[in-house]
Predict the structure.
Amino acid sequence: MDLDLSRIIDQVGKDKGIDRAIIVDTLEKAMVSAARRKLGAEREIEAKFNMESGEVELFEFKTVVEGEPSDDTEISLEDALEHDPECEPDDQIGMKIDTKEFGRIAAQTAKQVIVQEVRGAERQMVYDEYHDRKGEIVHGIVRRVEKGSLIVDLGRAEAILTRKEQVPREMFRINERIRAYVLDVLRESKGPQIILSRACTEFLTKLFEQEVPEIYEGIVRIEAAAREPGARSKIAVVSRDSDVDPVGACVGMRGSRVQAVVQELRGEKIDIVPYAEDSVRYVCSALAPAQVVRVMVDDESRSMDVIVPDDQLSLAIGKKGQNVRLAVQLTRYKIDIKSESYMREVQEELEEALSAVEGAGEYEARLLLDHGVASLQELAEAEDELLTAIPGVSPEGAAEVRERAGRLAIEKAEREAEEARLAAEAEAASSEGGE
């Protein structure tokens, strides 16, 4: 058979990095397949690679019978004794097949099977390697762009960075080096598909793990992370060692560690805040750099009304609500930001409603605010249990407070509606005048 099997084994093993035993097994299967195609599928054939000769030897096993054989799977005792003088009827005897009789067609069949089997083994190796690397950061080179997705050469395989997993406005040139997070590895008919991401939150946390030894060693832990890729991120960190400042460890000397992450994310702003079991402290930290004056908590609904100085309102909310949105993701609390002046107005409104009860005023209004009552409408819907807990408020007084709060809420809504109507008319008149 015109196949240089030793050369094939050495070349495939070198080019594909596949274990020699896998290639030998594949060759043996290929030769058995070719032999059965030539001699018949029912034939009992085995193959063995001869390490010394560098060839695959084929053996056909036949059953020894007395008399004439009924088919090609049998051999007469007379003929069998020529191969093995000790054989007996019903024994299985193996006889070497001359591989030269297969010719060119059999050789081509063997080659095709070898190619298919080796390709399958190679795909399995790639799948196993990168499936085990899910959740890691890999390095590669951008080779081409297909329908907006970047095809990245990882060395042993190609991966895809889809448009969805790319950071908005982030650009890479062909042949540029790239780092990305292995998001998933899928089995596909054409081979494993390795899906990368630079937009996921896990990419951010893995970068910190690489840059901050204390995180890698488990001394500092990232409790939560929130990210708007390409714009801003927040991470909450805690230390298992009281002598290690978790925020300082992540920032590094003169900001070196966090700047390394920022540089990889191409300028994405990163806030590092201390994690706290106390929900109020945690939310206040999460809203940094804004300063918080007061917090009203509703643990049942996991919501908070956060009061900030008037000049900190826009900072607390952030550009297009970004800061508070990230704080919500980080803490998993619903956060409503309010200014001090707004809350003073609310307090005055509550005081007016409470005036239905003799002696009630500023102190009682503050108690309501502390219990999460932050509007006239909420006061109008408050239950007796809450209102009668206020010193001096009886069940009858609670009813009067609710009735007065409801009336004031309606008057306020009507007043705001009228103001909105007048503003709309003024804007329309201004537009007509401009024309």
